[in-house]
Amino acid sequence: MKIGFICGSLEEGKDGVGDYVRKFSSELIRMGHQVVIAAINDQHITMPFTGVQQFTNVDIPVLRLPSVEHIDNKIAVLKTWMTAFGPDRLSLQFVPFSFDKRGLTFSLGKKLRSAFPAANWHIMFHELWVGMKSDSSFKLRAWGTLQKLLIQNMISVLQPTKMHTQTHLYQAQLWDAGYTASLLPLFGNIPLIKDSQTDIVDSKQINLVHFGSIYPNAPIVQFAADMAQYSKKADVLVTLNIIGRSGPEKADWMAQFKSHGLTVNDLGERNVDEIAELFSKADLGIATTACALIEKSGSVAAMREFGLPVICVAAPWRPDKKFRIKNMTDVFEYQENNLDDFMYNRHHSPYIINVSVVANLFINALVDSHQLNPELS
Q: Gene3D superfamilies, from UniProt (predicted)?
């Protein structure tokens, strides 16, 4: 199958969706498919770029169009480049803020349909709209309502034969809006270096790892206190390893852990091989993404691929509508005084979802959707 991906940016290590599409494309090419990627609002370049990017020694043809270029000019270049490739499917990797700094994609669907009037579209919704949280401000709700209307218009114009998202919450939101989207689980971007790990509950040292942004308003004061209490009761040494830029919340996390005599290592940005090594030596992953949204966390997906138990230490987050959203079975939601239950019963478990599994799910879904729409042949 010939697949053309369209996303916002392809700057390596600077755009999560771009990194996702690059790894995904590499796997699809390994499977025998032909794949190209076009980034049509790349904020990391000032001139158009046509060439090749690599992932694990696989060459991927790419087109990068800068955000400073007028949209009509970019669509014209995209049309010429993508038409020369001749895709069987066009896959829009959608994040509203990838295509517009305000997240308002007024003409995206119309311009893409005009450029490719006979295309068979697939949409992957990595994000939807703002203001989903039950206590969102009026401004965020109004903003989100407009984003939702624009997404509905885009779907109406593009008429995708298949839609995916990676979270149950987004699936429920789309269903509530009148659309059917299947789940396509997220895979991690850190290469495995171990085939398996063993339970380490009796170990006298616990290595915690946090990778990526630390989100605000997490119950860090109580969590650090509970972790220190567990350390004393279980007679284990607890070390927190923080990987990545993490953001302004990092200082508070470090201070809270240190105030209880726990060790903290601020490891900063590391390459993927170093991160893989750190994951392989860790006992427990920590996430600050809200549990309702944790399926969209690439960091959590990576930890799970390494078999790490993951504990969610996040601010309370409830959707604006009463959807029945179950938490992931292998992610534990931290609350005050429930840490011991998790720590004494945690275990490493293999995570069967990886890029190869997801690629097969994706291709099978596209094939099935095409068979259901034979008039598109």
A: Glycogen Phosphorylase B
CATH code: domain of residue 147: 3.40.50.2000
Place of tokens 């199958």: 1
Contacts with 161 (C-beta within 8 Å, 6 or more apart), sequence order: 120, 121, 122, 366, 369, 370, 372, 373, 376
Q: Does the residue 280 lie in any domain?
A: yes
CA–CA distance, 58 with 23 (Å, rounded to integer): 9
57 Cβ partners below 8 Å, 6+ apart? none
Tell me which of 299 and 328 has the higher pLDDT. 299
Complete DSSP assignment for 125-154: ES---S--BTT--HHHHHHHHHHHHHHHHH
Say how many domains are in the chain. Answer: 2
Q: DSSP readout, 152-199?
A: HHHHHHH--SEEEES-HHHHHHHHHTT---EE-----SS----S----
Of the pLDDT bands very low, low, confident and very high (cuts 50, 70, 90), residue 13 is: confident
Non-local (6+) Cβ contacts of 205 within 8 A are 236, 237, 238, 239, 283
Pairing of strands 2-7, 89-94: parallel
Separation between Cα atoms, residue 275 and residue 287, nearest integer Å: 16
Give dist(CA 375, CA 316) in Å, integer: 47
pLDDT for 327 equals: 67
Domain of 281, in residue numbers: 205-345
Q: Which residues contact 291 (CB under 8 A, 6 or more apart)?
A: 312, 314, 317, 327, 328, 331, 333
Q: Phi, psi at residue 88, to the nearest 5°?
A: -75, -30
Give the model confidence (pLDDT) of 224-268 as tens digits: 999 999 999 999 999 999 999 899 999 999 999 999 999 999 999
Amino acid in the structure at residue 316: P
195 is a domain residue = no
Residue 168: half-sphere exposure toward Cβ, Cα within 13 Å:
12
Helix segments in the chain, DSSP class H: 16-30, 71-85, 96-99, 108-115, 138-158, 168-176, 220-234, 250-259, 272-281, 298-305, 339-345, 355-371
Of 39-43, 117-121, 340-344, the least confident: 340-344
Question: How many C-beta atoms surround the C-beta of residue 92 within 10 A?
Answer: 22
Please tell me whether residues 83 and 59 are part of one structural domain. yes
- Distance CA(18)–CA(70), nearest Å, equals 21
